[in-house]
Write a structure and sequence with these properties.
Layout: H1 2-23, E1 26-30, E2 34-37, E3 46-50, E4 55-62, E5 65-69, E6 74-78, E7 82-84, H2 94-100, H3 120-124, H4 130-137, H5 143-152
Antiparallel strand pairs: 1-4, 1-7, 2-3, 4-5, 5-6
Length: 171
Amino acid sequence: MKKLTLILIVASLSTLLFSNLSMATETGSALKNDDMRVEPFADAKITGTFTRGESLEILNKKGAWLQVKSKSKTGWVRLLSIKRGTSTTSNQGAGILVAASGRAGTGQVVSTTGIRGLSAEELKAAKFNEAEVKTMGNYTESAQQGKQFANAGGLKTIAFSNLKAASGDAK
């Protein structure tokens, strides 16, 4: 009887543990088409691909890499290829702006490139502020709002051919 009780307790605890782990996973969406890799290295073998806007489950983070699970594959991808949180149809390019700020994800990385008007001391003292990054997300505009702004300013669309990807670049 004690053995049966112990087995039931262990089974119950393991069920609770694994259900909490699955609830703790984070979701994200792909900012661009990219490859998933076996390991978090640029030269690691490719295990699969995903497309822009695809919903992904974020399983793990290691440096500048996220381990993600798509509908059919699991692999590692660069952190800047994923927008954390749920996808919105209004402006999926907004995540690129956040990524370009050097404040992407929750890695609390603060980087600067080509910043004018700030001293070296101010740059060194910079701290990650996730609340401000989220606030910036509220300033995103939809494609339709962007077109309205362009029309109001008399801006015109200029068509140009895209650059060809270098060999080895992501699709």
